[in-house]
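tool_log.txt
---
The assistant was asked to compare two proteins side by side. It first ran the structure predictor on the initial sequence, then on the second. Raw inputs and outputs are pasted verbatim so the downstream comparison step can read them without reformatting.
(1)
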Amino acid sequence: MTSQRTGGMAGAVAAFLTAAYLMVVRPRLLRAGATDGEVHGPYPGAGLIPDGTRSATMAVTIDAPRSRVWPWLVQMGTRRGGWYSWDRLDNFGRRSAGTIHPEWQDAAVGDRLAATPDGSQWWEVAALEPEKFLGLRMSIDLRGRPFDPAGERPRHFTDSLWGFELKDAAGGRTRLVVSGYWSFRPQWLQPALSILVLEPSHWVMQTRQFSNLKRLVESESS
């Protein structure tokens, strides 16, 4: 009876914690810093990922105009300016740039921004509207091999758009809204993978990127 009671209590605690995460914590992860309008309103790039679903929407206000934020975004890439997040985790220990590099400012649709030091995986510039929107797309199978998104998709794959939208905010500031779209196969695995792995890890990395971008842009603007 004691073991059954203990098991029942453990199950109840686990159920409570799961419910608390899904109802309280997860919604905060999915919209950190974003307003209702930013979460529920339209977001650029909706047609770029076939069968894509809207991903988390996160935002930050930067005390500088869009023209000062944009150069930091277009120079991103593993063999370029980095990603301004936790460099040990997403930039292979290489420190992200602390200044603007003129040689990395000429981004164009179709450019590949390396995601690994050897360039075997990359984010492709799928959409670009200077000082307004940058959409980065990664299309790989579940063995980590890139595929051509214009052709036939593999049986198992992940195809996603990581978007950066810049909007004017009061006082000459910039509202940076990050969201995107995601398609994954096998489809039955997508919800569990998203909830258990991708959403928490994205929150960790994106909030760090926001913090560093805000610091870099505002210190450079002062």
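(2)
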Amino acid sequence: MTWLEVDEDSGFGIENLPYGVFRRDGTDARVGVAIGDRVLDLAGLAGAGLVEGRGWFASGTLNGFMAAGRAAWTANRARLRDLLTDPAQRAAVSPHLVPVTDVELLRPFEVADYVDFYASEHHATNAGRIFRPQGEPLLPNWKHLPVGYHGRAGTVYASGTPIVRPCGQRKVGPSDAAPSFGPTLRLDIEAEVGFVAGTPSTPGRPVTPRAFRDHVFGFVLVNDWSARDIQAWEGQPLGPFLGKSFATSVSPWVVPVAALEAARVTPPAQDPVPLPYLRADEPWGLDLRLEILINGGSVSRPRFERMYWTAPQQLAHATVNGASLRTGDLFASGTVSGPTKEERGCLLELTWNGTEPLELPDGAKRAFLEDGDTVTIRATAPGANGTTIDLGEVTGTIRPANC
């Protein structure tokens, strides 16, 4: 138990301790840890000699600390737990606790590269049925490797950043009609879970599933905004480009891998058995409960535990060709969806490509997002000792196009 008053249901107790970057009253950005309804200023703690690494924590980004490696992450987490559970430390630590309502939460790390996967069998099957109704829902490679695409690091934004409706070529009408140009008419969301690399890897040397904890710092929530009409026209044969690259939002808190150990579960059985480089010797499904809200109303509750491809498998596949990890590499799961309509993770599925408009809790209907809509994705997980781990939320509001 911590000496700080923390609501048992807050999800930000001593078993969580997620890292983020914050700014207060125009001061320089610095690294903090969420505890209850407060942010613990790690730069301040380091300046007072209570933790190591002032250079890491006063830098305004998590990258320096993430690059320090697993031993530093483990030591700092243990030290923070000691400081927050030892009553004798209360007087020294309390001055460095700031109400979360008094700070601005920023993007927690500088993104080096961004990769988005397609790891939900339910999502991939639904998408296949929508776009290839006469064919097999899953393409032949899907159950043999984690399918993904390389995104754009420069448009990964902090939660709360407004999302400007993108413009591009759209194919509307008969198949022989020429494309038109303008704002997307099918703006969508993708509720995802991402992980961020801390420790780099050596070029030419793959990272095995067993080495996942040695390289990955933690998990975030991701909304990979999508312009479905732009994507559909441009995507053949090389896949997503402008339909995805305009914006991706990430949550402000990075939940350490260690905080999610109690959430690990056995993932779905994989058939056929993956090739040896993709086999893990421990279960890496994660019991994360997501919720999607549009304009404050809940529209879906996907379950991450049903994802076919796990995070260590995704990391192994991304590096098996010798591609090296850099600190700040972001890997997203792809849309998290389940077997029922109430668990679908995007409007493409929830409205079956616009043919079955979704009724929001306030009575409004949506095929896809309209200007002014606000989308929020949040998630929780079971923590150690019967606690709850809150992953926070990622949110964004749609602004009109500029074309």
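---
observation on (2): The chain has a mean pLDDT of 96. The longest strand covers residues 388-399.
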